Amino acid sequence: MSQIAGEPAVQDFVEVRLPAAGAYLSVLRTATAGLAARLDFTLDEIEDLRIAVDEACAILLQQAVGGSVLSCVFTLVGDSLRVTVSAPTTDGRAPERDTFAWTVLSALAGEVDSSVDEDRTVSISLHKKRGTGPGAS
After folding, report:
1. Under a CB-based contact definition with an 8 Å cutoff, are residues 106 and 56 in contact?
2. Distance between CA 11 and CA 26 in Å, rounded?
3. Per-residue pLDDT tens for 6-28?
4. C-alpha dihedral sign at 126, 30, 26, 12
5. Is the Cβ–Cβ distance between 41 and 76 less than 8 Å?
6. Strand 69-77 and strand 10-19: pairing?
7. Residue 34 lies in a domain
8. What's the half-sphere exposure (Cβ side, CA atoms, 13 Å) at 47?
9. Alpha helices, DSSP H only, in 1-136?
């Protein structure tokens, strides 16, 4: 993997693919906690990320195509964790940014963004740096 000038080198990435159903979200919460702990996030920051990942998935599952796959990519870079969840959707509409759910995501994760691919796959990216946000000490 090549490094972009001025960007920290990617340490690791983990991809988890599972059925787009709420019953499987505990797997992603556990993976989130384990990877954040690996980066020495505080317990409060870990809990914030777990809640943020859960909320991002809940947003996607509302419009996910039945029987589809939810993908979650965790990228560890320096002292931060980027989590991108994505799923094929029925309408290919990006989440509204003026909702309570989006406000919660932004407060818990720091940087939040979304995108829609040409095949109507919606992605939500969360980027949390250690030592920032409401759960930071």
Report:
1. no
2. 25
3. 655 556 889 999 999 999 999 99
4. positive
5. no
6. antiparallel
7. yes
8. 6
9. 25-38, 43-61, 100-109
- Residue pLDDT, tens place only, 89-135: 999 999 999 999 899 999 999 899 999 999 999 999 999 999 865 55
User: Strand, coil or helix: what is 72?
Assistant: strand
Q: Which H or E run includes 125?
A: strand 121-129
Which pLDDT belongs to residue 137?
A: 45
d(Cα 11, Cα 135) in Å, to the nearest integer? 23
Please say whether the beta carbons of 50 and 65 come within 8 A. Answer: no
Domain of residue 114, residue span? 10-129
Q: Is residue 74 in a domain? A: yes
Query: Is 44 part of any domain?
Result: yes
Instruction: Give the type of residue at 129.
Output: K
Q: Decide if 61 contacts 86 (C-beta within 8 A).
A: no
Reported pTM? 0.86
CATH number at 67 reads: 3.30.565.10
SS3 category, 126: strand
In the chain, how many domains are there?
1
- Has residue 1 been placed in a domain? no
